[in-house]
Write a structure and sequence with these properties.
With about 240 residues, this protein is of the alpha/beta class. Helix 1 crosses helix 8, helix 2 packs parallel to helix 3 and helix 3 runs parallel beside helix 5. The longest helix is centred in the middle third of the chain and has 29 residues. The termini are far apart. The structure holds 1,4-dihydronicotinamide adenine dinucleotide. 1,4-dihydronicotinamide adenine dinucleotide binds next to helix 1, strand 2 and helix 6.
């Protein structure tokens, strides 16, 4: 029987590349996204369109995954949003929505799959954080809080479930070429790239490689960790 992963935000960018790599490694996939995701490129996948900040959607998705594939071996909390503003001008909704999608949904999804993982004494929870969750970034206090929250939550959760064979880790991307960074002008991209020792943006593949390592059997003794994949932008 193949391993089973749930991936949020799987329609594009880092989530889609992660799904492709896990598929190449023989995993079955439950793909969650606001947008509908085509499954024809995968050998064994179910896609559900919905909002991960909706608790009912999360619970129903976890149930459907078990019905279709029998269990969940790995949860990749990848879906994330930004709603940038200076703290002074930030609207409550901008704060609430970013925290709900990036942080609260992570907790709820993990809760929905945790019991099965505990029973089987095996599981991988992998959270896509961000370098700014450690470094901070002006204009992104909501996003930064959500990513820092993810890192702290992984450490507490990692301690709670370690004895049950479940690992909880983060991958913290630096500056990665996806639609999230596509909104920047060429000039902005060049300025940011100049501050990165490797002098270029990373790719979704760079992040997918770290995620698939954490999902692997070989990473069984790694928990509560954050793997920074940022071209040397922040050596932390
Ligand atoms: P993206 O914007 O290309 O893809 C995000 C996906 O998540 C989209 O398909 C979107 O529809 C989905 N999504 C958003 N809100 C959702 C919701 N409420 N329910 C279900 N699906 C939802 O983003 P990208 O660049 O692939 O980022 C993936 C993760 O990596 C995010 O958590 C992001 O914060 C993080 N990250 C990205 C960096 C970058 O430079 N691209 C840098 C650091 C972190």
């Amino acid at each position: 029987m193949s391993n089973v992963a749930v991936i949020t935000g799987a329609a594009q960018g880092i989530g889609r590349r992660t799904a492709q790599v896990l598929n190449e490694q023989g995993w079955s996939l439950l793909l969650l996204d606001l947008q509908s995701v085509g499954t024809s490129e995968y050998s064994s996948a179910l896609a559900l369109a919905g909002d991960i900040s909706d608790e009912q959607f999360v619970e129903s998705a976890a149930k459907q995954c078990v019905e279709k594939f029998g269990r969940v071996d790995a949860l990749v909390n990848n879906a994330g949003i930004t709603q940038d503003n200076l703290a002074m001008r930030m609207k409550d909704e901008e704060w609430d929505e970013v925290i709900a999608v990036n942080m609260t949904a992570t907790f709820k999804l993990a809760k929905a799959v945790q019991r099965g993982m505990m029973k089987r004494r095996n599981g991988r929870i992998i959270n896509i954080a961000s370098v700014v969750g450690v470094m901070g970034n002006p204009g992104q206090c909501n996003y930064v809080a959500s990513k820092a929250g993810m890192i702290g939550w992984s450490k507490a959760m990692g301690q709670e479930v370690a004895s049950r064979g479940i690992t909880v880790n983060c991958v913290a991307p630096g500056f990665i070429a996806t639609s999230m960074t596509e909104v920047l002008t060429d000039d902005q991209k060049a300025k940011i790239s100049a501050t990165i020792p490797m002098q270029k943006m990373g790719s979704a593949q760079d992040i997918a490689a770290a995620v698939t390592y954490l999902a692997s059997e070989e990473a069984g003794y790694v928990t509560g960790a954050t793997i920074h994949v940022n071209g040397g932008m922040a050596m932390i």
